[in-house]
Backbone:
């Protein structure tokens, strides 16, 4: 065996070792993030039907559950993140009052995705609108574009994050529909926490799902339907 | 002391001016460092007013950068000699202001360190992404345009280059207007009127900046500007001011006519606190009426410099009302309902700019100042006029 063969062999060994070291953390992190090798299906469209008659004024259970699940502080200051909020509305002419949860409406034609310069705002095949925190440059154009004020900007350094829900100072964030839970076959935290069952979560595209049956049977609306965004979240009794 | 020539003191003063500009830019950088370290919580911006004072400075600089090129276009495209003599200086000013404005816009990002991400991931439906292309294209075109003016062998390309710059800056300012025009849900924006409005505003603001810089440059070099030339460009400023006033009026009239927009117009023009004050006193009176008086009042010596300075002040007042007032008015998510929540629904949002935002904004002005000062000194950008004869 001449010296060149040895060199080549050593070179190959080192290369394989280096490649293994480079790839290993990826596998490890993929596992930690409970990643699925299978891509999400475009045949599914996740959505929600919110029954405002069942939503009590003053009840904040969905908000509390969201904050806990996603590691938000729960603060309501002007610079605090709020992924879901309770909005109390009153008809100006009739005085009728309604209380409802408001969050990202997971539009089919999301303005936030249109305006995002770096493609950080994106819509998953199953209709969930998300922000890629590695790509977001923090320009806040999506916050200007969102008709529902669903997005928050992280104004301060973060500590004690939930590993399933990575966040980042200087980037924009919003309701993920608890995508990490959906991918494990669970419901979003807000839907699960609502004692009055005011939030019905499911696949809008499956005609046999509970949500699809119900939106066929009862009258429901999209908030600001005139904008033509085709939201994934619908409201009953509005 | 008496042994030194006036030129010696002038040189000294030049370096003092540069150092002062450098210090302001440095203070801006320090503000950026603090904003990056502590997050945007140290600014006045929040989740309701997401764009603040830095955007007022940035958009002024970018819009004026496009408008100042009008001076060059009238020369190169329409062949007017007094403007042609001013084209190099206008081009330099444009590059300087564009650089200052973009620096502010970029350094206000939540993650300015991700500039490379912005440069390599272009979303074709995003007006911001278009603007990345428009701004870099503008820089390159102006440099080429300057080259065709300064290099004798390139002179024959001057007219095509002038045309290209002329067309490009229209598209550029259209792009700036579209940032707001393409917002579907905001009461203050989402109007096709905004791009042309920004173009006409850019003419007035750009010419005002040009007048000031030209006056300082002439003073510095002990040159006297031909009063006939001053008279002409002064009247041009008057026309641009009237034009922008017209478009602003139409913008508010349109809103006033739509019942759903009346609440917003009331807020901006009557009962919105600081915003109506800034609009009427800052923009209309200081930024338009007094300058028009200074330009057109018969029988008195007009003061073009004061008029230009006031037009610039008015520009800042208008942009503050437009950008911040437009966000402070609550988004109408449930038309026909009064709303309240922990996230400012149905509430007028409050915004108090912090010192860091001022520092960042002035830092951008300082960058434009430094580039202009150095440019005028190093290159031969001073207008060389023959005795003025009307074209």
Residues:
């Amino acid at each position: 065996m001449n010296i060149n063969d040895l060199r080549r062999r050593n070179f190959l060994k080192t290369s394989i070792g280096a490649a293994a070291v480079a790839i290993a953390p990826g596998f490890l992190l993929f596992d930690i993030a409970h990643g699925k090798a299978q891509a999400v299906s475009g045949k599914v469209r996740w959505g929600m039907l919110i029954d405002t008659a069942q939503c009590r004024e003053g009840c904040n259970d969905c908000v509390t559950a969201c904050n806990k699940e996603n590691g938000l502080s729960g603060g309501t200051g002007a610079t605090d993140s709020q992924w879901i909020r309770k909005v109390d509305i009153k008809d100006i002419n009739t005085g009728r009052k309604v209380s409802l949860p408001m969050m990202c409406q997971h539009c089919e034609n999301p303005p936030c995705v249109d305006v995002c310069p770096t493609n950080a705002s994106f819509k998953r095949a199953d209709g969930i609108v998300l922000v890629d925190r590695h790509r977001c440059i923090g320009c806040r154009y999506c916050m200007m574009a969102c008709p529902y004020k669903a997005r928050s900007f992280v104004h301060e350094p973060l500590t004690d994050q939930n590993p399933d829900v990575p966040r980042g100072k200087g980037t924009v964030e919003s309701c993920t529909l608890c995508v990490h839970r959906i991918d494990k076959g669970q419901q979003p935290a807000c839907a699960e926490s609502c004692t009055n069952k005011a939030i019905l979560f499911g696949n809008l595209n499956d005609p046999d799902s509970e949500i699809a049956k119900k939106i066929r049977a009862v009258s429901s609306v999209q908030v600001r339907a005139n904008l033509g965004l085709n939201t994934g979240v619908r409201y009953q009794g509005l | 002391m008496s042994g030194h020539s006036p030129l010696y003191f002038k040189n000294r003063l030049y370096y003092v001016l540069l150092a002062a500009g450098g210090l302001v830019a440095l203070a801006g950088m320090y503000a950026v460092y603090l904003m990056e370290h502590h997050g945007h919580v140290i600014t006045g911006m929040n989740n309701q007013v997401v764009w603040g004072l830095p955007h007022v400075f940035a958009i002024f600089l970018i819009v004026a950068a496009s408008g100042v090129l009008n001076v060059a276009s009238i020369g190169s495209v329409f062949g007017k000699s007094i403007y042609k003599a001013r084209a190099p200086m206008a081009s330099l000013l444009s590059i300087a202001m564009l650089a200052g404005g973009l620096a502010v816009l970029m350094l206000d990002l939540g993650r300015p360190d991700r500039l490379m991400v912005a440069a390599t991931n272009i979303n074709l439906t995003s007006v911001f992404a278009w603007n990345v292309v428009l701004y870099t294209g503008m820089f390159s075109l102006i440099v080429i345009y300057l080259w065709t003016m300064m290099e004798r062998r390139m002179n024959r390309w001057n007219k095509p280059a002038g045309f290209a710059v002329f067309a490009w800056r229209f598209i550029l300012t259209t792009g700036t207007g579209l940032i707001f025009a393409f917002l579907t849900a905001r009461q203050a924006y989402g109007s096709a009127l905004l791009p042309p409005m920004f173009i006409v505003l850019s003419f007035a603001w750009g010419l005002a900046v040009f007048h000031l810089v030209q006056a300082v440059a002439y003073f510095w070099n002990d040159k006297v500007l031909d009063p006939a030339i001053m008279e002409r460009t002064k009247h041009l400023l008057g026309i641009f001011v009237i034009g922008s006033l017209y478009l602003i009026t139409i913008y508010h009239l349109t809103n006033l006519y739509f019942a759903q927009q009346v609440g917003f117009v009331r807020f901006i023009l009557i009962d919105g606190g600081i915003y109506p004050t800034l609009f009427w006193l800052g923009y209309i009176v200081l930024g338009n009426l007094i300058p028009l008086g200074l330009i057109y009042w018969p029988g008195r010596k007009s003061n073009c410099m004061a008029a230009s300075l006031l037009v610039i002040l008015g520009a800042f007042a208008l942009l503050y009302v437009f950008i911040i007032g437009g966000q402070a008015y609550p988004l109408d998510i449930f038309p026909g309902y009064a709303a309240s929540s922990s996230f400012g629904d149905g509430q007028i949002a409050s915004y108090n700019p912090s010192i860091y935002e001022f520092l960042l904004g002035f830092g951008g002005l300082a960058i434009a100042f430094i580039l202009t000062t150095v440019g005028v000194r190093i290159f031969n950008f001073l207008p060389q006029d023959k005795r003025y004869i009307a074209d």
Remarks:
- Residues 45 and 126 of chain A are 5 Å apart (CA to CA).
- Chain A is about 30% helix and 20% strand.
- The first strand of chain A starts at residue 46 and ends at 51.
